[in-house]
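Posting this for the archive.
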Amino acid sequence: MLRLPQFEVVAPESVADVVTALQRPGARVIAGGTDILPNLKHHLGTPQHPAELPPVLVSLSRVTALRGVALDEAAGVLRIGAGVTLSQLSEHPEVQRRFPSLSQSAGAVASPPIRNMGTIGGNVNLDTRCRYVNQTHFWREALGGGCLKSEGNVCHVVPGGRNCVAAMSSDNVPVLISLDATIVQAGPEGVRELPIEEFYKADGLAHTNAKPGEVTTELRVPLPKGPRRSHYIKWSVRKSIDFPLVSVALRFDLGEDEATVAAVKVVVGVLGSKPRTLSKLDDVVGKKFGDPAVARMVSDAAYAQCKPLENVPYEAAYRRDMIRVYTRRAIEALAASAE
């Protein structure tokens, strides 16, 4: 049996009080607890020495200001509170109508019980994962002293590597990046908003640009200004529970004829510590969306630009092949649905 370590829980009722509570040594945010509690059971992110203070979990369960989805037409955005559960997000009619890829990604996370507990704020702050880290403490000790992310100083994915390459496995982050969403952070220095694409960095030990004592309060997704086709697809071993081994978020903005590609943004996840936005897709612009060349060009670009590592199960070369396959399948499915 994996037991939780000793910790203290505080439950503020306002964002300001959450920020104050996070100033305590060892304080960490807990929302649904679907990520942090398993990590605590595996002794990840817990004090390494008995003399250290037990962790303090700052619960967001009583902060009602973080709940709710609101259409802000004046600002041209959909405002999503960080405390909205993944089930609520997936089933929200405005999300389903305006952002189907976000509804798909939220509805693809794990299982119904986890989606009923997990929040979108927690999902965008999901800790990075690695096949050599997300194991029991006993397993990591048997490996020979852990790794860069847990108790050790070596990387088992990149021998001799000095940077942690644990993977960002969130279903929703690639989609939010593809939709040009912004994230709102509240902390001791006040409230700031930044593009969610800039919130992540290539460091598996500290993969977000959150400042000390900050908490995510809201996500803002710009409303489409014209016809659009968007989709999210992932490959995992099982159809539920499992984290994605490959994930692709697609967004095609169309011209007034609703058939010609005016802009395209494709984001691939589960590579390293942040998703990758594909570049060099200009040749797709101007083509008919249903043209088979579109699926071929985008899937070939995804294969060429994305090189998975051995940081999650299944061989990196096979996962790279699946990036091409799943990207093509998603575009073909989108094109067929538009006919």
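The chain has a mean pLDDT of 95. The CA atoms of residues 77 and 223 lie 5 Å apart.
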